[in-house]
Design brief:
With about 375 residues, the protein is α/β, with parallel strands linked by helices. It has 14 helices and 16 strands. The chain folds into two domains: about 250 residues, Rossmann fold; about 110 residues, no CATH class. About 40% of the residues lie in helices and about 20% in strands. The strands form four sheets. The protein has a seven-stranded mixed beta sheet. It is globular, with a radius of gyration of 22 Å. The C terminus is likely disordered.
Amino acid sequence: MVRFADGGERVPATLPDWLRWQAQQQGESIALRHKRLGIWQARTWTQVAGEVRGLASALQVRGFAGDSLLVILSRPRPEALLAALAAQWLGGVAALFDPLAEAAGQRELLRELQPDFVFAETLDELERLRGAGLAPRLTIYAEARGVRAQEGEQDYARLLAGLRPAQPEPQAQAGRGAFAFYRRGASGRSERQLIGHDELLRQGRQLVQAERLGAQEEALAARAFAAGGQARYLLAPWLIAGFRLNFPESLATRDNDRRELGPTLVAGTRETYGRLHELALARLPQPGSVSRHLVDWALARRPGLLRQTLGHWLVRRPLRDVLGFSRTRTPLLVGEPLPRDAEAFFAGLGVAVRAWPDPSEWHSPPVHPLPSVDGWVAGGPQPV
């Protein structure tokens, strides 16, 4: 139950409600960690909730309301997640865009959207936005290095430092949209996937219950931030179970950071596990060598007691350490299944990858997209 400003208590029904509940229940526990310059920087649940409310206040002052959209063009990082929650705090929608996507097509989508509110990670993302000819009312950027701010652009840290004391109460509603994703469809028209609070929380609760997730979990948010599966099976469970969510320093350091962290929960895609499979194969001895025979012997299915024991200490444990799976007990696969050879490899390591569906529904959005899930779906596909 969440305590509200009117003194009443209600069951958390939105992502911001769950954030506030976690801050009330375990305020001094660590909610987020982000590696910066080789050092893990931590935020508690109280700090996360306060930062989200502060960002919501800054957005509200600049005109962000319940029918507004915040475009987020960023790799996984705490500031991007907190900005998304701030938009949802005010009843709006966070539209996640992958900065590694093809630039020309993404600029076309952004020009169609013409967003008034944007979060951009670095100068590279700012330049992509500028190249699209956009004129947002407010653009927040996370990294100030090399940035010469133009009109309407503001550094994240300075924005927080200059906040007014008044902070709004959550205005999110269960039946409204929380996250939106955009792409160019096969027909050439833009398509949108809109996921509501109620859907996210329903699927998040299913995962938490099925996998028995609790506050003791360590999870890593690495590559696929701008994807519906991550919202369903990582962000929503994080808020419901109250575990620790970790962000690597960069994509280049994610494997080293995973090895150092040893996450208990991994939510990856076919591409995630495929890349790790290739990484492991590259480190194995050459086929036909004596050492490779030892590896193949240790990874065989249904090993006996001797093979189970020796194989663990000589092969499986070192390989799991290399991949950062030394403590992983909940390896999740979101979306498309793994190739058989990759699935067999992880099974041999004792990493039983469990598949969870990614029920992506893409539609052509209306000209002025509203953050109402039910109304948008009932209206059916409409041209841009």
